[in-house]
Write a structure and sequence with these properties.
TMEM45, 0% strand, transmembrane helix, 2 domains, transmembrane
Length: 298
């Protein structure tokens, strides 16, 4: 696998997943989250377990299957590129790095499939944790070899690592806020930046149209190039956010009845606590004590 393809192909996959997550959050989840049809976290977990089961036939885990297919192709291509002369002699260790990253995203896809078909057997939030783990391993793999690179290459990869760890942090937050619409959009936004900057990094470092390496006439030109790289990353972030807003507005235009509720969102844990039998019994006892005290005083 050439260095350029090693950046562009994964970047395109992350952009595709970012767009998919944006569409999912703005269409399938928008009306449900804004119409007030909310249940507690435990209730949703229980209902999903009853509906899906281990032999569910209600649709397919599309996201998990796509992850497995894409990562299988990536692992195969990386391993073949790492051993161009046969499996007895390793020549390109960097391709094994890509294969390792693909492996963890394949694990994330496998967890998605298992969560879909056997939700009662998988710990709650493991799909988000496995995705966060895959992003974390990817970020660490890029961090470990930054010291051996030129400063410009380091600068490009540091910005890429920032986008990768942003994806990891958002995925971890989703473990405790799995139904937060804001977190879903944050995951889509960070994935869009991750993928688009992945592709941009391939063009900056391994542009196939550039025959000879870039020559810098002075240190000022080199510093200006670094500034332009930072500006380009900022423009990628702005473009990803604008793309997110456009998709949200288009989906809301198709669903004009789904307006933002005026009342603030209730805290599900507090609602469960209010409806608990222990609290109702305690409130009843306090009411009885209050009535009896007034009766005695009268």
């Amino acid at each position: 696998m050439s260095q350029f393809a090693g950046y562009v192909l994964p970047g395109a996959a992350f952009v595709a997943f970012g767009l998919k997550w944006t569409l999912d959050a703005s269409t399938s989840n928008l009306e449900k989250l804004l119409s007030g049809e909310k249940t507690s976290t435990l209730g949703k977990r229980h209902n999903r377990n009853k509906k899906c089961g281990c032999c569910s036939s209600d649709g397919l885990p599309v996201e998990g299957i796509i992850k497995l297919l894409v990562t299988a192709i990536g692992i195969l291509a990386s391993v073949v590129a790492a051993y161009p002369s046969g499996f007895g002699q390793l020549q390109h260790v960097g391709d094994i790095l890509y294969a390792t990253v693909y492996l963890f995203f394949a694990i994330s896809g496998l967890v998605d499939v298992l969560t879909f078909y056997c939700p009662y057997a998988i710990p709650y939030g493991l799909n988000h944790f496995s995705l966060a783990l895959a992003f974390t391993i990817e970020g660490l793999m890029f961090c470990l070899h930054l010291q051996r690179q030129a400063f410009m290459e380091q600068h490009v990869h540091v910005l890429l690592v920032c986008a990768i760890f942003a994806c990891a942090v958002v995925s971890l937050i989703e473990i405790v806020l799995p139904y937060s619409l804001l977190m879903k959009f944050a995951r889509a936004f960070s994935s869009l930046i991750h993928g688009s900057w992945y592709i941009q990094s391939g063009f900056i470092l391994y542009d196939p149209n550039r025959v000879t390496p870039t020559q810098w006439n002075s240190s000022q030109d080199y510093n200006n190039a670094l500034i332009w790289i930072s500006l380009t990353f900022a423009w990628h972030a702005a473009g990803a956010f604008i793309c997110l807003l456009v998709i949200i507005l288009i989906s809301r235009r198709k669903n004009p009845t789904s307006a933002v509720p005026c009342q603030p969102e209730h805290i599900e844990a507090f609602e469960d606590y209010q409806s608990s039998p222990a609290l109702q019994s305690s409130s009843h006892m306090q009411h009885c004590n209050f009535c009896s005290s007034h009766t005695l005083s009268a």
